[in-house]
């Protein structure tokens, strides 16, 4: 058990590439406003154009689409597991006595080391998640190309960029919780793609909602530490994250109510 822990700690925290990682604006891959703006604009334009082009084109049949979807979901499920493990180990191995570095970085924190490494991997993984939209459009599953879906995929990249750019306190907790939820979510999508649709879809939505509520709890703690304690870095980014989290929470409550609560009420009325 100890050797598994030390091997994991080496490969996920202490490896020189990870421990010496530094986020430097303009030098690290993806570290400019130009990059993030171009990628998000390309995503939105491609979504719009492909969505309209597909109206007159045939959808990719399930025989082609399902295996690609399964591989894509499995890759993201495993990557999310690695990111959750890497970031958790980075938090617990943090040499500073303030364990809650996970929540509140000192104002003069250097954007260096494993926590920033995992935040960058997490940020770039959001580009890989654009593949979800492509698969939805190629399969002509337009019902699922919702405002929630496109808004989430486009905005989350900006949020992760701001986390890194402002050295935002609390992002390690965000990486751990969201990656953990994505292990379950992409696990669910993988099982759907291989034809074993799980019965716990509702639970996935509930987990997603819990992460947003939890995020607000951490946010409140961080703000109190910032204003009444010794100060936390990236405070303005926190307000942006709060607005994003609140908007997603509202969209997810709406999704939950439409997909589960109303359906259950209709079934009760019919029986
Ligand atoms: C249970 C949910 C995870 C998914 O709800 P859905 O209504 O989309 O689920 P569904 O039952 O229709 O999905 C099953 C279908 O998705 C296909 N599918 C499989 N893998 C996929 C992938 N990687 N991306 C998109 N679709 C995929 C399956 O083949 C299956 O198709 P078939 O039906 O043909 O067999 C829900 O909680 C949710 O997130 N809803 C919002 C929609 C969304 O876009 N979510 C992801 C981004 S938001 C997010 O990620 C928030 C967060 O950070 O937590």
From TrEMBL:
The keyword Transferase applies. Its main location: membrane. One of its GO terms (molecular function) is fatty acid elongase activity. The keyword Ribonucleoprotein does not apply. One of its GO terms (cellular component) is endoplasmic reticulum membrane. It comes from the Eukaryota. This is Very-long-chain 3-oxoacyl-CoA synthase. The lineage of its organism: Eukaryota, Viridiplantae, Streptophyta, Embryophyta, Tracheophyta.
